[in-house]
Fold this protein.
Amino acid sequence: MNYDHALSECAFLSADSNPVFTQSCDFLLALGQYSALPFEIAAMLERASQRTTCWPAVSEELALNCSEERGSETGGIPHVEILVAGVARELGLDLRTVEHSRETSAFIDALRQQVEEGSTARVAGTIFALEASAIAELKVIGRMIEEARKTATAANNSTEENNRWLSMPLRQFIRMHTDGFEVEHRSRLWTALQSCEQNEEEQREFDDGFRFVLQAMDSWWKSIAGSSRLH
Ligand SMILES: [Fe+2]
Ligand SMILES: [Fe+2]
C-alpha cells in the first residue's frame, strides 16, 4: 500500500478541500470538536504501546511519543495543555468546556476500540495513520486558528501565564509540531516498523488499521463541518 498516496487523497488533510473550509463554518466551533483528538492522543499512545509489545521497537517508540505528548520535552507541560492555554488566550475559548458531538465521541470510541481490540499489526497501522497524517492535519488546524482569530472575541487576559510553555503562541505551537515533533513521530515509527518482521496477514491487518483511521477521519471531518456550519 502506498501510504503517501492514500494520505494525498484525503480531502480533510488540506485547507483547500477540508469540508470546514469549503462549507463556510464557524472555525472556533470546529476547533472545539477537533480538540477531542489532542485530548485523547497520549492515553491512546500509552495503550498502543502496551498492546504492541510483540513488536518491541514499535512499542518503545510509542512510549517515547507518549512521554513527549505528556511533556518530556516541554518542561513537563503536556502538549494539549499548551494548546488549551493558547486557544483560551488568543481565541477566548476554553476547550475544556466544549461539549463533543455524538459523531466526535463515536470517532474517539472507534479509535479506542481499534487500539483496545485490534491485533498488534492493526494497532500499529492505526497509530501510523494518526502520526503520518498529523503534519498535514496540524497545518489545516493552523489555518483554522488564523481564520478563527479574525472573528474571535478579545483575548482573555486573565488566562495570561508566566510559564514559558503555557504562554507559547499558538503559531509557534503548531510550527513546533509541523516542523519538529510530528516529523519525528512519523519517521521514528516508520523506522521502528521496518525493524519488525511482518507476514502477509500482518501487512494486511496493518493496512486495514491505516485505512480505517483515514475513513473514520473523513466522516468525522464531514460531521464537524455539518455541526459548525454558519446559518
Ligand atoms: Fe504533540
Ligand atoms: Fe505525533
Summary: The chain has a mean pLDDT of 95.
